[in-house]
Amino acid sequence: MRVALAQINSTIGDMDGNAERIVRWIDSAVKEGADLVVFPELVIFGYPPKDLLLRADLVQKNVAALLRVAEACTQTTAVVGYVQPDPERNGKGIYNAAAVCRNGRVTATYTKMLLPTYDVFDESRYFNAGQRVQTFPLSGPRSISIGVTICEDLWNDHQFDGRRVYGIDPIQRSVDAGARVLVNLSASPFRVGKHK
Predict the structure, then answer these.
(1) Residue 121, SS3?
(2) Which residue is catalytic, options 41, 73, 123, 152?
(3) Is 41 a catalytic residue?
(4) Is the CATH number 2.40.170.20 carried by domain 3-185?
């Protein structure tokens, strides 16, 4: 399996430009023989979008841009971060989501389960928390089950801090659901000393 990591720097609020950039990266990954192309968290909307998330017109524009990206996924599979409206309009009304795009359409969606509220993050202000894990098969010489998570979902291991920060573990749930490979979309902002 060949995986292309498209860690692009999208522009906040420029859904059309971001979609064009994503499609170019997908085309490039196809030329390199990638079976899977992974993009950052909220790559369609740009990160961190903050109060722009409160604008329903921009959320809808982000969905339209995602559909254009999905149409470009005819020769590979891409996992793309975007803002998903809640069809029931519950709570905050939107999710931090990842779309699995292939065969010219969105075939699966994962919504981020763990929403950080520390440092520069205030995700529970904007997003509903997801409730279900998402796996999908990636066919090739042999089919393998891929699990999708977003940023904080991965940082829930008590081995890091010696304590459980959250009551649920999306990684363990993904493994329990059959995932053999885990893909985690992240877009944490850079700061001096980050690597330490």
Answers:
(1) coil
(2) 41
(3) yes
(4) no
